From TrEMBL, chains A, B:
One of its GO terms (biological process) is L-phenylalanine catabolic process. Residues 8-84 form the Fumarylacetoacetase N-terminal domain. Pathway: Amino-acid degradation; L-phenylalanine degradation; acetoacetate and fumarate from L-phenylalanine: step 6/6. Mg(2+) binds at residues 192, 212, 216. The keyword Calcium applies. Ca(2+) binds at residues 93, 161, 163, 192. This is fumarylacetoacetase. Substrate binds at residues 95, 109, 199, 203, 300. The active site is at residue 100.
Length: 365, 365
């Protein structure tokens, strides 16, 4: 049973050799070209569809489902190039896994190992660089920077962060949690590549900057919210302030992190403390607007078990406890030539398990 | 002698009632419409001109100077609406005034009042929100947010930051300081409105987020680098790493901050520790690219004297020492209805003093 059947139909942007960019949906290991449907689907990016809003999203999905069921025109994935599916407006990243925040505090700030003071009161986040959001498969050149006082060199502690990203369709401000699905179109997987040595030296007091701005990879398939089953969010203590309630839906997305050929972790998105609806409500609670194409990521997804963490910082305890890959080699952080692939599955709204594609990247020297 | 004479000619985007957006230059208290010159100047934003690069910038300035000298077609500023002159791609903000960084540390972190550890080694910065960069004159609605644990309310400590912003024209990565003028087109004034209570509660460990994302105002006139005289940067100790050398030009821009009708501060940009060339080199040193329309701001400009500071946090010592305005009223932070105007002048490349326009905004409840 394919995880990319008729119940899923994630949207992407593809091209064939010397062809233009077209919107398609993934069906099994093929792409169905949607340009023949015209209108919002005859565009080189998803932005016009994103902007159209929930009623149009529902109607378009109905039409696409009907079209895909009837057509025999399918292009093997191996024959297409996949592109960044939408133009990224502002990119924001949160920090909403309690286990991740605790792990990072314990590892990097052993003198003050608790959660940051505001952590349980609001979804902490920061703005990232939009121009370096790249599609899965784009090689990741190891960043250089000040890795310690007086040392400008290639990062020696290049890491990943396995995250789930939410793609904003309809602009808005002061968006309530209950309005989440009116504004958010769908979901991608995100790898927020991070240079831990650069980060440790630069981050006080304004947060991460060059440690994360060199590349953020996203999966090429945007899974519509309509395709995903929802679940109950985790209990929150203390009860959040009114503007963050109700918490909104959670999603039981099960991530998997492959370091070369070895599956090293399976982070559970259902364990996240703050929901995507709360993140959006918080982001816009001060009056700031979101735009079509805004991307906001969940923050590193980490569960309580050692093999459920979404970063190598946590997996190897900052390099102190190397992991052994299936080829017998040891890893502390990423080596040149290493490949990381984050994939995910989730219960679908249609009752079957669906795939969220994958986000992959290989490290270049 | 006008500070907007033939030696200045800053570019902006204006419209007349029911008219379209056009590029113009400011001459005295008038605008000269440049659309008749066609080409890069027949556009609704400066982006095509920004993208064209230094040789085109020089040639365009020559043609504009000639055209402006010959034309009698001038539109009074009072008859036009000024717009955001370019589409902002990524927005970045630095923290490059030593005096400001010291003041903030002393006021907010009296237990560790020195500079942050990396401060003298690299220009600390962070990414901001592009979608909320607005043109001078746009009213600023007081943001709400978590101003303390358990309290969601309008900010009670609304502040300004007087800064100088640099507008990137030509994309690039790993830009050397000596290449600064090949990539940067010109200069605007920036007010990085800041809610200090929101900031204090949210900023650990990822930096400011909602405290600054609600609005960033910029002046409507982009002064070309060509119009500005350069000066020597301040001495740096320790000597920066190679990728930050030579330090590049400095600019003797003299800012002035008016709180309603009272001039409360005159921050000296020449006192900045890190130069704009070093900021751009640092920003791109990890491999991240800049794009046409990127805006990066200097960070709050503060000199050593009490009346040279670029924020009210510093001016009133976090509200502990109110300032008296000329109408006799006292201020700690911004009240509803208050208006703040940042203006600036600088020695021009042509030998006369030039104006950098102003960035103004009125606080709404």
């Amino acid at each position: 049973m394919s995880r990319y059947g008729i119940d899923n139909l994630p949207y992407g942007v593809f091209s064939r050799p010397r062809g233009d960019r077209r919107i398609g949906v993934r069906l099994g290991s093929t792409v169905v070209d949607l340009a023949p449907l015209g209108g919002l689907l005859a565009a080189p990016t998803l932005n016009p569809l994103l902007e159209a809003g929930r009623p149009q999203w529902t109607e378009t999905r109905r039409r696409v489902t009907e079209y895909v069921s009837g057509t025999t025109g399918r292009i093997p994935l191996s024959e297409v190039t996949l592109h960044l599916p939408f133009e990224v407006a502002d990119y924001t990243d949160f920090y909403s896994s309690e286990q991740h925040a605790r792990n990072v505090s314990q590892i990097l700030r052993p003198d003050s190992p608790g959660l940051p003071p505001a952590w349980r009161h609001l979804p902490i986040g920061y703005h990232g660089r939009s121009s370096t959001v790249v599609v899965s498969g784009t090689p990741i050149r190891r960043p250089s920077g000040q890795i310690a006082e007086g040392v400008y060199a290639p990062s020696e502690r290049l890491d990943i962060e396995a995250e789930v990203g939410f793609v904003v369709g309809v602009p808005g401000r002061r968006i309530r949690t209950a309005e989440f699905a009116e504004h958010v179109f769908g979901v991608v997987l995100v790898n927020d590549w991070s240079a831990r040595d650069i980060q440790a030296w630069e981050y006080r007091p304004l947060g991460p900057f060059l440690a994360k701005s060199f590349a953020t990879s996203v999966s090429p398939w945007v899974v519509p919210l309509d395709a995903l089953a929802t679940t109950e969010p985790v209990a929150q203590d203390p009860v959040p302030l009114d503007y963050l309630l109700p918490a909104g839906p959670a999603f039981d997305i099960r991530l998997a992190v492959d370091w070369n050929d070895t599956r090293v972790a399976t982070p559970p998105f259902a364990a996240m403390y703050w929901t995507a609806a709360q993140q959006l409500a918080h982001l816009t609670s001060n009056g700031a607007g979101v735009r079509t194409g805004d991307l906001y990521a969940s923050g590193t997804v980490s569960g309580p078990a050692r093999d459920e963490v979404g970063s190598f910082l946590e997996l190897t305890r900052n390099g102190a406890e190397p992991v052994k890959l299936t080829d017998g080699s040891l890893r502390r952080f990423l080596l040149d030539g290493d490949r990381v692939t984050i994939s995910a599955t989730a219960p679908g709204a249609g009752g079957t398990e669906i795939g969220l594609g994958e986000v992959t990247g290989t490290v270049l020297a």
